[in-house]
Specification:
Layout (H helix, E strand, L loop, with lengths): L1 E2 L4 E4 L4 E6 L7 E3 L10 E6 L4 E6 L6 E6 L3 E8 L8 E20 L2 H4 L4 E6 L2 E6 L2 E6 L5 E3 L2 E9 L3 E10 L10 H16 L6 H16 L1 E2 L4 E2 L22 E2 L2 H12 L2 H14 L10 E2 L10 E2 L13 E2 L10 H15 L8 H15 L18 H15 L6 H21 L35 H13 L1 E2 L2 E2 L17 E2 H13 L3 H12 L11 E3 L4 E3 L5 H38 L2 H10 L4
Helix pairs in contact: 3-13, 4-5, 4-6, 4-13, 6-8, 8-9, 11-12, 11-13, 12-13
Amino acid sequence: MIGDCRTAAIVGRDGSIDWLCVPRFDSSACFAALLGTHDNGRWLIEAVGKSRSTRAYVGESLMLETIITTATGKARVTDFMPPKTLDSSIVRIVEGLEGRVDMRTEIAIRFDYGLSIPWVTRNDRRTWTAVSGPNLLTIRTPVPLRGENMHSVGEFRVRKDEAVSFVLTYSESFKPIPLSIDAFIAQDETAIFWRNWAAQCRVGGKWRRTIMPSLLALKGLSYAPSGGIVAAATCSLPEQIGGTRNWDYRYCWLRDATFTLLAFLNAGFTEEANVWQTWLLRVIAGAPEQLQTMYGVLGDRRLDEVELAHLIGYEGSRPVRVGNAAATQLQFDIYGELADVVAQAAKGGLPPAPRRRELRGLILRHLEKNWILPDEGIWEIRGQPQHFVHSKVMIWVAFDRASRAPGTTAQERAHWRSVARRIHRDICKKGVDPKRHNFVQHYGSEELDAALLLLPLVGFLPPADRRITATVREIEKRLVRKGLVRRYETGTGVDGLPPGEGAFLACSFWLVDNYILMRRRKDALRLFNRLTRLANDVGLYAEEYDPVAKRMLGNFPQAFSHVALINTALNLMIDGQERRGQRKKAGRRTARKLQDKSGKKKTAERKSHGGR
């Protein structure tokens, strides 16, 4: 992924940009080959003939550098999106490093998710425009381009110390063609932007190297004009190849709020945390019963779900969906996540959000009347609503945090505590398997759910509680496949969808968190190290992973996976620091005991150690 904090492009290992939505993450795509064929839009830059390549981000940035080696030389392709320009642009710079390298480019622009072929015009020797309806893309390059089968193609050669640039800029077609930008100045300015941003991270050493790619991914998924953070840059990448679990994730989920805020706060990015909090409380303003699970990057509520029949889907995985009907579902857990994010913001020293107290009162009065209802739960099932245990626990979180919030009256605190206790008793009575003593997915079932791993993390019960340890044990038995955690057992039909999907990466990180709480550090490190090895070559994760086929599944890059990695890494770091502190204290206690022993004993010890 490369991005400018307004939208993002997905670059393949072959040098092809196969996905780009403009002007925002949730706009229609002008490059949609990711979900179709090359004729649905892409931008390729590659070497002519046989070659091999490696790639990496430049330092701590989202500037992608690909080194291409051929029989005649070596070249570098640098791809990035300048974050401070008026309009979104993609800059691609090809530099010769050794010998000479023959290159080619192929550009197929298809607006409306790969459907609309634009009218391409050559404006001058270096400038081409592609227009369709309200959309305009301007291409500037010294490479001569020509039309072939509705594609624009060109060949060029770079020698050592030579450089060729391409700049593609989006604008609205009824406005003047945007001014040109200097690719090399933009390269320097973009590097400075990312360097300054990364400097805010207060984590150092190996843990910084571990979490920085994920922090950069979160920043790249943020929409700077509003502060929203999308769940992923893509839509309809399948959770099972050839299956129908294909959803649009280019929106902002409320449940990500607590995890994201914690990740930014604990890593030192207080400005990002505050902007995210401000976005969050702005979009949820209004009646609590109208609260949605997700919103557009500007706070849009209408996210109507439609299927695009003209796209064949990623590796034939249909249908291709844009929009997300889950926005209208009842998911009680988001109320608890909102309460927790407000509490975490206050602990983290963020400025108090406007009307926070009034909002809390509205939400709690709504929950007190409705918490006994079933819902669609954290996994947004498309089947019948259920009394999901995780949802009930997060309702408990809402009342628990309110009962301890500053600024509330003694009467309010007593009432919220009373409601929290009532919900807690209900969950422990109806949400536990009487035979195995573990929590279950929903009332009346014997099924498991990886979301139950969050119970000790939110403080519902201590990690040593018999029901928590039994839940972790049963999840290890029934939901762990080849070392990774599945969300739930899809074969039960609870979600109203055909069975089958990969392991859910965030859930696997939650299991690591439980191991940390249970003082199983070796197990925690073993699983965490395995998870870090699953990232792609530039440190990015999708939503899921297939441990049999050894490939990622679902939308990419997935914010939830990266947030989970950051928080788990910081938990491991803190746990390691605490353990070292305890060992130091134990060492000092031992030394004091030795000093307090009799001189005779000390003499005997010195003799037994050869007089040292």
